[in-house]
Write a structure and sequence with these properties.
This protein has a single domain, classed as Rossmann fold (3-Layer(aba) Sandwich). It contains 8 helices and 7 strands, in the order αβαβαβαββααβαβα. It has a 7-stranded parallel sheet with strand order 3-2-4-1-5-6-7, with helices on both faces. Helix 7 links the parallel strand 6 and strand 7. The radius of gyration is 17 Å and the shape is globular. The termini are far apart.
Length: about 210
Amino acid sequence: MKLKVASKILDANERIARDNRKIFSDAGVYVINLMSSPGAGKTSLLETTITALKNSLKVGVIEGDVAGTDDAIRIDRLGVPVVQINTGGACHLDANMIYEVLGDLPLSGLDILFIENVGNLVCPAEFKVGEDIKVMILSIAEGHDKPLKYPLMFQESAALIINKMDLKPYLEVDVEKIKRDALSLNPSIRIFELSCKSGEGVEQWTAWLQTLTS
């Protein structure tokens, strides 16, 4: 019975996700679902990305958190459209949550929409929300064992950002192992080594984003 209930939930989510996808497609906006564990640097990455793209692309953001508005406030300071979703305890955003806020965004005036999912290494990968692609962020401070411990996140993502590379001299982390294991799970995954603090990899990341929207 539990399997039937779970299946119904996922099926319903898939239907709404398809509706969202059509809305996004009709508006001509490219949608990226950003996933990571808490503290991996999603909001900092968005701040860096928006700043780098502000003269070439029109960006919008949906912020997902269990509670609070701190991240949305940070994004709002950059002068881009942003909507906050608080899940009230749920460990991920689902398609219906996204659908409910679409009217609060100027979709037809955007080139790219980032959905910052709730910090979690399991649930967000299971639920489509209407995105074009999923992108995963992994801070090197989390260690090099995460790809094999949480394979679905890496299998579902079109790109992996190995974040906080400025900390590498201070950590015993094998970045090459992260890359090898990620590619073993998903041979087509794009990998970016990036630091919002030093600027390493930002140009390569934002250049790739521009190819997605051209």
